[in-house]
């Protein structure tokens, strides 16, 4: 006959409390951000502020779409920027004084100007668009304030990098065979206020001769791997090309562009 179990030793709850308390403190800033967003969304919106926000958003994207018909199809050698003029422009800078500008493809501007609905088709180069079109009329009243802030941040950056492609062919893996990708085009720096092309340079990149696929450190499938390779090559080529025409400008609104 088994003897009844003795009293179990109670574990102190102090370590558990300290761990939970520490995690709560570490997560407090994030929790505060979430709470702040929730409170802002629950607050009643000011109709005048909403209307003003929609107007500012619409005005900015109207300014951008008006650029499309006047962006030239240029060729020949690079034409450098006048850095003194660039420095005088109202652009966003980091602590080192670097001027970061957004980027977009010429064909994307054309879609915006034509009011083509939906996102552009996935062609392997959509990452060159560092921001998306915002339809002010389609926003809910609760979304206007955030969209207005993001739009005004973009509007402070006077210059826009436009990629105009002559050839843009994404790499493919078909039946185990690798078909390399290629981009040949031009990078133009556009003054979004005047519509003037400030400077421009050729940009060209192609896939590497061989691309590693799979493995512990590279688990992507073949299509992802060859796409990432061309992306790396084009990022490097665009950065190097921009350095030949301006010491002031950097492609920096997308985390995948610029060095």
What does this structure look like?
By secondary structure, the protein is α/β, with parallel strands linked by helices. Helices cover 39% and strands 19% of the residues. The chain contains six helices and nine strands, in the order αααβββααβββββαβ. It has helices at residues 14-42, 47-65, 83-88, 106-113, 141-155, 222-245, and strands at residues 92-93, 99-101, 103-105, 159-169, 172-174, 177-179, 182-191, 197-206, 249-251. The strands form three sheets. It has a four-stranded mixed β-sheet with strand order 3-4-7-8. The longest helix is centred in the N-terminal third of the chain and has 29 residues, at 14-42. The chain starts with 13 loop residues before the first helix and ends in an 8-residue tail after the last strand. 24% of the residues are buried. Residues 1-21, 23-33 and 253-259 have low confidence and may be disordered.
Short key terms for the protein model shown above:
259 residues; alpha/beta; four-stranded mixed sheet; three-stranded mixed sheet; 6 helices; 9 strands; 19% strand; disordered N terminus
| Rounded average pLDDT | 79
The N- to C-terminal Cα distance equals 76 Å
By DSSP (H or I, 4+ residues per run), the number of helices equals: 6
The total of beta strands comes to 9
**Based on helices, strands and strand pairing, what is the structural class?**
alpha/beta
Percentage of residues assigned to helices: 25-40%
Beta-strand share of residues: 15-25%
What is the global morphology?
globular
Uncertain regions spanning at least 5 consecutive residues: 1-21, 23-33, 253-259
Main sheet record: 4 strands, mixed
